[in-house]
Amino acid sequence: MTESPNPHMVDTDTLSGQMRPIRRAVLSLGSNLGDRFTSLQGALSSLADTPDFFMVAVSPVYETTPVDAPPQSPDFLNAIVIGDTTLSASTLLDRAQAIEDAFGRERNGELNAPRTLDVDMIVLGDRVSETEDLVLPHPRASQRAFVLRPWLDVDPDAEIPGAGRVEELLAKLDEEAVRLRADLELDLQ
Fold first, then answer.
1. Domain 10-180 class?
2. Which of 23, 57, 69, 99 could pair with 46 as two cysteines, CB 3.0-4.6 Å apart?
3. Could you read off the pLDDT of 55-94 as tens digits, one per residue?
């Protein structure tokens, strides 16, 4: 699962006139501060309102133990959003960070610190990027059950370019810290 069902479809960028392919984007949502579920729902609604981002699927919500986080960090709520987009990687990253900021995300430089909202770009089609601002595919996604489990729920054929099939990657991980929250359901609207 890297490109939209028809990777030859293109859409014109109305400002520049450039042709851009429609790519499949996978985004991970997470929150472990404040009203976690409201933050996830708000992020989903904001993505759905993003021009040139077409919502395809949203995973079930999982509650997860923080990974590589400061001691006493609260548990996260996590979900995966899949969409088709003609947006560039940098534009989609800017949008993700603007959504985080709108929900009170503070960037204090502490690695994996608790946060009101985290919107991470996991893959964007087959795009490979290794810049200071963006690494694609996400460099730790293949090692994170809280990304792979919900992603597999909505796309059984999912793959991370250069890393392998999500199903096979997840089979190598401990899923004990990833618990389905059947009582919480994100609304695509």
1. alpha beta
2. 99
3. 999 999 999 999 888 788 899 999 999 999 999 999 999 9
